[in-house]
Amino acid sequence: MEKRTKIITPEEKKRIAFHEAGHVTTSWYLKHSQPVQKVTIIRRGKSLGASWSLPEEHQILTKSEFTDALCSMLGGRAADVIFFDEISSNAVDDLEKATKQAYSMVLNYGLSDALRNLSYYDSTGKMSQSFNKPYSEKTAEKIDEEVQAIIDRAFEQSKEILTSHRVQLETLATRLMEKETLLKEEISEILGERNNL
Questions:
Q1: Which pTM value belongs to this model?
Q2: % of the chain beyond a pLDDT of 90
């Protein structure tokens, strides 16, 4: 449900608009992300804004699909850095999702370069009841380093996309500040056709 009772300053509204436009613009230009159907800067629940896609059902996800999803999640934070030259607390939900996904890529699916073809996933559920991890402290450090590297690479890719499409991002954010909600047709008008990259 929309929540219009909270007071949002003009500066906060601008930050939210650029943040959401960052998500939309990043995902729009990524081959493996789903096109956004709607974006809003009207508060819903804890969220200050939101965008919606129609995800395709997949039983198997590739490393490229995981990486593009991470880039999309980090697009809002990347827009903060590019346009405000300072990060804010606006990305807490995105960072939580991105961190969990990166750990999942490393720990469960063996999708990391540093820990190739290993999985610490426990389908029995017994490991979660144990106090012992199935890897050493040295490996735990490698896991943390690899997760940070995956996040860093995705963040840099998000910044590159937004920098090369800066004009479209600014136009999208400005339109969001004016209208507060945009549908796919309006987004496409600003960002151009995706043409199935």
A1: 0.88
A2: 62
